[in-house]
Amino acid sequence: MAPKRFSRRNFLKAGSLGTLAGVLAAGERLPAEAAAARAPFTDDPFPCAVIGFGEWGREIAAAIEDIEELHLTTICDNFPLMLRRAQRAHPQAARVADYREVLDDPAIVAVFIATATHEHKDLVLDALQAGKHVYCEAPLANNIEDARTIAQAGLAAQDQIFQAGMLYRTEPQYRSVYGFVRSGAIGRPAMTRSQWHQKTSWRRSSSSAERARSLNWRLDKDLSLGLIGEIGIQQIDYSSWIIGARPKAVTGFGGIMFWDDGRTVKDTIQAMIEYPGGENAMYDASLVSGFDASYDLLFGNDATIILRDEKAWMFKEVDAPMLGWEVYARKDKFYKETGIALLANATKLDALGQDPTEDDPNAKPPIWHALKAFADNLTYGPFPAIADARLGFESTVVAIKANEAVQEGKRVEISDDLYEL
Amino acid sequence: MHPVRLAFNAMATRFEIVILDVDPVHARAAAEEAKREILRVESQCSFYAAASELSRINREASQRPVRCTAGMMRLLQECARLHKETNRYFDPTIAPALARWGLRKQSASGRVPSAEERRTLVEAIGFDAVELDASARTVYFARHDRQLDLGGIAKGWALDEARLILEESGIGRALLHGGTSTAIGMGRDPSGNHWKIGIEDPYIVSGEPSWIMGISLQDQALSVSGVRGKWFRDDSGETQIEYGHVVDPLTGMAVSGKRLSVAVSDSATTCDAWSTALLTSSALSVPSHIAGTALQKTDLGWTATIGAPDPDWQVAAEILPLH
C-alpha cells in the first residue's frame, strides 16, 4: 500500500477532536468521530464504504479503487444480487446488507452514499451522527424539506467532510473553462444550452417483480426528480456556476414520447431556466433519441464554448478581440466553424512530452475527480468541500423546482427564501 | 413470448442481443444492462484507448507490478489457463507480430516480414513472461517488450459477462453475438428449438449465403475464426497468398489459405481462444470439453484438418471429415 501523507492539518484535526472527545466524555456518548479521527495517524489509506451498489455505486467503487488515499473495505446493499456483483468486482471488500453495520464499524472513516435519492436523508443523518465523513450523491433528496435537513446536518458537522456529488465542480476541464469564462474570454455570458440524449429505457431489470419496482424508483414521479432532476442537475449547476447566479424561475415541458411502459416520469423534456441578470439556460434531455449525446454550450458576445466528453472548444466571433495564444492553439473544424481546442491540462502533458491532441492516458471520469477531491480533503482537511452542503442544497432546490415545472408543464418561480438554510 | 432485439456498436463491430420473454419491458431492461456490461468490458480492454486499464498495464507493467481490477485479473487468469490449454497457440501477447504484419487495423495494408524479422517477432511474444499475482492483484511483464492484446478473447469475455447479467435478471432465452463470429445461445429460440447458427462460406460472396454447417447451441457458446476478416493478399510471389489477422505465436507466420475454425463450449471466452488456436496450429488436440474443428477449403470443398465436425452439427455435403 502506498504510504499516506502525514500532514500538519491531519495532526491538528486529530488533536482538536481529541479535545472534543475529552469534553464529551463527561456524561455524553463518545462520538464515533473520535475513532474516525484517529485513523490519520496511520500510514494506511482511509478505510471507506459504499452504500448502494447500483449502477452509480459501482462507478464510485471503481473510482475508489483507483485512488491511493482510499481503501474500499465495505460495500452495503440490501439487494443480495448487488452483493454478489460486489463480490465479483471487489472481492476484498466486506459485504453487508444493513448500513448500520457500516456505521457501527469504527474503522470506517468515510461513506459514499449512492442509494435512491429518496433514501439519502436517513443515511446521511445517521452517518454524520456516527462520525463518518460523507459523500452524498446529487440530488441530495427528492423534496426540499429533506434536502434542507441534510444540508443543515452537513454544515453543522464542522469537523467532518460533507461533499455533495456535483461532478463538474471538481472536473478539471469544466473548472478550466470556468476560469476561462471568468477571465472574460467569451465576453459577457448571454445564455447557455445543454442537452443529454441517450436511447435507453432508463429501466433496471430484476428477476423479482417486487425488486424491479424498487430498483426502478427513477421512473416513479413520486420518488424521482426525473431526467431534469436526476441527470440535468449537473449541467444546470454548471450553467449557474458560469452565469454566477441562482435560477429564479424554470419553465418546463415534457412527455412520454416512446417508453410508454407504465412509468410516470417523462422520457423527453425541455426546460428554460431564468437567471436574475436576464440570462437563460436552455436544457433538454431525452431517452428516445441518442443523437448528439451530451454537451454544454456557453454563449458570450465574443465567443461560444462547447464542452463535451470532458473536452472543450471555443468559437470566436469575427469581431472578438485577439487573445494572443489562440494563434498557436490546435483548431478543429465543425462544419463551417473552426473551434479552438481548450485543453485543461495541455501544459502538463506538454511537459511530459505527450501530444495534447492525442487521448490523454491519464484521463479520469468526472466521478474520479470528485472522489479525489474528497480524498484530498480527508488527507489534508477538513476544509469546506468545493461542492459543499450549501451548494448541494441549492442545486437540489433547482432540480426539485425544475422537475415540478416539467411534470406540470408550467413556469415555477424559485424565490430566495427557498434557498435559505 | 415477445422477442426484444438490441443492437449496438462495440469493439469495432456490431453486437446484438435478442431476448425472448413474456415481459418485453423487462427483457429490454435486461438487454440494456447486458449492453452496459459489454461496453464496460470494451472500455477496460481497449488496446487503442490510452486511458483504458489495458493500456495502463501495457505502459507500466514492464517497469513494476501494476495493480489491476478484480475483473481484469480474472480475465488474465483465463488467458493464462487458455494459453496453457492450447499449447501456447493462443497467446495474448501477439500484438508486436500483428503490427509487423500490418494487421493491426482494418485499413492497414499488410506485408510479409522476412524470416529474420519473424525470428525477432517470436522473441517478443510469449505470455509466459506475464506474471500474475492473484493475491496482490498485480500484473508484471518479466520482459520489457511484452504487450497484452486481448482482441482475440475480449468479445467472448464480454459476452460471457453479459450472459451472467441476463441470468441474474431471470432471462432464460436469448441469443447474443459479437460481430457474428462469437455467439451464445441461452435456452430455446422462438420455435422452441435450440438456437441454430449457420457458418457461412466466406469465399462465396455473391448470391445467397452458402452454409458450411449449422450448429445448434444447447446453452453453449460458439466462436468462428477465419483468414477472411482482416486480411491482405500478398502478390509478391508467383502465387497470390491471402494472409489473415491471426499469427502463429510459435513461428511468427500469419495464417494463410482458405481456412476456418469453429469452437463450441460452455464459455465464449474459451471458444474465442480455441478458435484462434485451431486456426493457427496444424497439430492441436482438442480437449473433451470443447467441440472444435479446423477446416480448409480445397477444390473438393471444405476438409477438416483438425478434429471433425461434431456429429450433432448439421454438416453440409461438401465437408469431408477425417475419419
Q: What's the helix-strand series of chain B?
A: EEHHEHHHEEHEEEEEEEEEHEEE
Q: How far is the first residue's CA from the last residue's CA of chain B?
A: 42 Å
The amount of beta strand of chain A, in percent, is 15-25%
**Poorly predicted segments of chain A:** 1-41
Distance between the termini of chain A: 41 Å
Fraction of residues of chain B in helices?
Answer: 25-40%
Rg of chain B is 20 Å
The total tally of domains of chain A equals 2
CATH superfamily of the largest domain in chain A: Dihydrodipicolinate Reductase, domain 2
Give the overall average pLDDT of chain B.
89
List keywords for this structure.
heterodimer, A: 421 residues, alpha/beta, Rossmann fold, Dihydrodipicolinate Reductase, domain 2, six-stranded parallel sheet, 13 helices, 16 strands, 36% helix, disordered N terminus, B: 323 residues, alpha+beta, T-fold, 2 domains, three-stranded antiparallel sheet
If you had to describe this structure to a student in words, what would you say it looks like?
- The complex is a heterodimer of chains A (421) and B (323).
- Helices cover 36% and strands 21% of the residues of chain A.
- Chain A has 421 residues and is α/β, with parallel strands linked by helices.
- The longest helix of chain A is centred in the last third of the chain and has 20 residues, at 389-408.
- Chain B has 2 domains: 2-41 and 153-315, ApbE-like domains (T-fold, Roll); 53-149, ApbE-like superfamily (T-fold).
- Chain B has 7 helices and 17 strands.
- Chain B has helices at residues 24-45, 53-60, 70-85, 95-100, 115-123, 154-168, 268-280; strands spanning 2-10, 13-21, 66-67, 130-133, 138-141, 173-178, 182-186, 195-200, 211-217, 221-226, 231-234, 241-247, 254-256, 259-265, 291-298, 301-307, 314-315.
- In chain B, the strands form 4 sheets. In chain B, strands 1-2-6-7-10-14-15-16 form an 8-stranded antiparallel beta sheet.
- In chain B, helix 1 (24-45) packs antiparallel against helix 6 (154-168).
- The longest helix of chain B has 22 residues, at 24-45.
- Chain B is globular, with a radius of gyration of 20 Å.
- At the A-B interface, helix 3 and helix 4 of A face helix 1 and helix 2 of B.
